[in-house]
Design brief:
Elements (H helix, E strand, L loop, with lengths): L9 E4 L16 E6 L8 H10 L25 E9 L2 E9 L8 H5 L6 E4 L4 E3 L9 H5 L6 E3 L4 E3 L5 H5 L5 H5 L5 E5 H17 L6 E3 L9 E5 L19 H31 L12
Parallel strand pairs: 2-11
Antiparallel strand pairs: 1-5, 2-9, 3-4, 5-6, 7-8, 10-11
């Protein structure tokens, strides 16, 4: 699904207590919807992600799983995770597309102390600006989904940017484009929520009574959502049940900025009052006037 080109108006930037100047939104909030019940684990999305974003090829090995890599990395922004679980005597594949969920309330951005290193756009995309990254890794600790990865080589942090250059041109992300089973849908957030409801009804009719939509409220909702066949087994999909993003760092920054402004103003006022009361200090005042 192609959407109009986006002017990428900024909503929030890291280490800034002030809201960004609102721009004219030329497109609504966007989202990806991953229907886990349709995923066949082919990893085409992984390859498309690496190719489009020009990420390095990383050697891998047989570690007893169908996964291509053990974990995400600075050069692997998308990983298909495989987990086997027995339910009611039947073996089930729990396959999850692990990548940045682009939270509406991004914990990474709230935790980042480097101004402009993390940017959230009005369309919902949360992007990292490595030029401003100071390598402190606070964003890693602040993410409730354990997504950002630190590079020892560049001393910077990386994650999925939802193919922001494609989105800016009105195209869908590369992973969506390449999925052979249409397990990944893309469009406006409202349209994807409506589609998720339809898919949920289909799964319920197929006997998946615990099927659920994963769009957690604790982070204000996400811009990559999941349709989960076994909604009562979220941890087995690698999905936190109640993720939370705190704005504590941003709130503290706002308080410190106000305190600093008050102290600066008080200093100027004290200087002015001293000048009016005592007058300018004489050059000879320190040597006793001799």
């Amino acid at each position: 699904m192609n959407l109009p080109a986006n002017n990428l108006a900024i909503k929030r930037i890291s280490a800034s207590a002030e809201p960004a100047t609102p721009g004219i939104r030329e497109m609504p909030e966007i989202a990806k919807l991953v229907d886990i019940s349709r995923c066949i684990g082919c990893k085409a999305c992984e390859i498309a992600c690496k190719e489009w974003n020009d990420l390095k090829v990383e050697p891998t090995y047989n570690f007893g799983s169908y996964q291509s890599h053990v974990d995400l990395s600075p050069d692997t922004w998308l990983l298909m995770r495989f987990n086997e679980l027995e339910i009611d005597g039947n073996l089930n594949w729990f396959i999850t597309k692990d990548a940045c969920l682009h939270c509406e309330e991004p914990g990474c951005l709230y935790a980042c102390p480097a101004e402009g290193a993390i940017v959230q756009y009005e369309n919902g995309i949360v992007d990292f600006n490595q030029e401003n990254c100071i390598g402190c890794q606070y964003c890693v600790a602040g993410c409730p989904f354990d997504i950002p990865r630190f590079s020892k080589e560049t001393r910077r942090v990386y994650k999925c940017n939802m193919c922001i250059d494609r989105v800016e041109a009105g195209l869908e992300p590369a992973c969506v484009k390449t999925c052979p089973t249409n397990a990944i849908a893309y469009g406006t957030k409202d349209d994807m929520l409506a589609l998720a409801d339809q898919k949920l009804t289909i799964l319920n009719n197929r006997g998946f009574a615990k099927a659920a939509i994963y769009d957690p409220e604790g982070v204000g909702g996400t811009h990559m959502m999941y349709v989960v066949p076994h909604g009562d087994h979220l941890p087995d999909y690698g999905l936190p049940e109640k993720p939370v993003a705190q704005q504590g760092a941003m709130a503290a920054l706002a308080v410190f900025k106000r305190i600093g402004a008050y102290m600066f103003g008080a200093g100027i006022l004290a200087t002015a009052l001293h000048y009016l009361a005592v007058g300018p200090e004489s050059p000879d005042s320190d040597n006793g006037g001799g």
